[in-house]
Amino acid sequence: MKKLYLDRFIPGMRVARTIYAADGRVLLQEGSELKPSYLEQLKRRGITVVYVRDRLDEEFPEAVPEDVISEQTRVETTRICQQLMEDARARYQKEGGRGLYLDADRVRDQVSRIISELLENRDAVVHLTDIRGVDDYTFHHSVNVCVLTVLAGMSLGYDEARLRDLGVGALLHDIGKIAIDQEILKKPGPLSPEEFEVMKRHTTAGFEILWGQENLSVLSAHVAYQHHEREDGSGYPRGLAGREIHEFAKLCAVADVYDALVADRPYRRAFLPSEAHRMMISNPGLYDPRSTQAMFLNIALYPLGTLVRLNTGEVGLVIRVRRGMPGKPVVRVVLDVRGRRLPIMRDVDLLRESAVSVAGAAGELQRVLDERLRTVATTTVPG
What percent of the chain is modeled with pLDDT above 70? Predict the structure, then answer.
């Protein structure tokens, strides 16, 4: 299974993961053939990438990743997030932010469900990124940020009560965007300085909405308030720095940035997990190192099924990733240094073979995957 940009469509490809709208409707079912008419419908919704099956899935079934939470839980949480934010936006326009009622019990229950699934699957590693359209971006993003933030909290040893307050804050971290004009929220390019000043208000608006909600911790409100603050004081809305920023907000901040980096946006394509990791750890002045490390313990920098070039010059497929060792996968070498298929493949454990490392990830090797390995797999795999 691999991500395919729709402009690289090849007839006969089939969808490997069902694509959902934020309201839970199925846009394209797993197993469906990618017909040109379907592609046009996806593009109209602002979806530029899908997961597809290829012949390598048959040859390397162990390299097909699974989500860290169930599909049902992800779809239901996204639907709840959409309903809550759209209802809140309608009421906000009539009544303003203060005293706005949210169904906090429903949010808490759903976050508890996410926590339970993650605790039951403690060795889970994040391999997949969500497929989201332009109009549904905020809702899918909120669910991803919640999952990533809770996983980071688990890495830091939080108990379930703290994880719940953290997760609720992360799921609702962008609730203040209901106070922002839609034209600014959905602008396909960079915001002007004036528009950015308006956008920054979503943090204060979010705090005002969540503050005083029944059955919501004030700490959850501070996640919405502070998730754009930065370690060096360069963030907003108050320019807090270091210890002035609550640790819940620091965890949500790194998850918020990471998920935005690995998502496709109208003005740029997604960064690879390894690229996002490199960008974030190279800016310790912006992101709390402890929070960043806690999050990346749970993220595969080279997800299952990723084609990588090793420093030996060989090319292989990632077939295993350990939680806590995101940059040290097990790689099944399939091509030699000249790009020829190996008659006998071998597995290289980068944790045990310290002299071997990943030199490049799928983004650099897309041409190899499309032009070489697909041909090889088609001619060597029965069926």
Answer: 93
The widest CA-to-CA distance across the chain, in whole angstroms, is 69
- On the question of a cis peptide bond just before residue 237, with omega within 30 degrees of 0, the verdict is yes
**Is residue 252 in some structural domain?**
yes
Residue among 361, 176, 326, 190 at smallest CA distance from 256? 176
One domain, residues 130 and 162: yes
Q: What is the 3-state secondary structure (H, E, C) of 328-343?
A: EEEEEEEECCCCCEEE
Say if 20 falls within a structural domain: yes
Residue that finishes a domain, picked among 254, 278, 296: 296
Helix, strand, coil % in the chain, rounded to nearest 5: 50, 15, 40
Task: Categorize the per-residue pLDDT at 174 as very low, low, confident or very high, splitting at 50, 70 and 90.
Answer: very high
Please check whether residue 60 lies inside any domain of the structure.
no
- Strand, coil or helix: 165: helix
* Residue 48 structural domain: 1-53
Nearest-angstrom CA–CA distance, 378 and 129? 27
Q: Do 164 and 112 meet the contact criterion of CB atoms below 8 Å apart?
A: yes
Alpha-carbon 125 to chain mean position:
12
Same domain for 228 and 372, yes or no, is no
Mean pLDDT of 271-283: 92
Between residues 57 and 112, the one the model is more confident about: 112
pTM for this prediction:
0.90
What is the pLDDT, as a whole number, of residue 77?
Answer: 97
C-alpha closest to that of 114 among 171, 172, 176:
171
Domain of residue 31, CATH code? 3.90.105.10
Are 215 and 279 part of one and the same domain? yes
